[in-house]
Specification:
Blueprint (H helix, E strand, L loop, with lengths): L1 E3 L10 E5 L4 E3 L2 E4 L4 E5 L11 H5 L3 H11 E2 L10 H15 L2 H10 L4
Antiparallel strand pairs: 1-2, 2-5, 3-4, 5-6
Protein name: Phage tail assembly protein
Length: 114
Amino acid sequence: MTDQIPTNQATNLSTRQITLDGPVMHGDTVLIEAGQKVTIRKPGSGELRGLTLSALNQLDVLSLEILLPRITSPQILKGASMDVADLMQFGGEVMDFLLPSAAKAAIRSAFPTE
């Protein structure tokens, strides 16, 4: 579940919060408990270094594994394991961050929520 941080323009958020369905583990160690919130922020160009946008748009697990430690708080370490649903939430937020405002507006007009 994504809990968006309130702002005047919800479509231009630079941070979002995700409530974890399962724990984030590194080996046998629990790094972040299930039910905890993790803040993910919009990556800058430096944080995308060594990655391709196409891989991130395809939710490539290895690319997300490199990017998430750079943009999450508390930090999700490279090599950590998590529930697949949580990985999808993080990947979905990354994809949304990478979409231009015009594309988001076109999607909203094509699929109104009311």
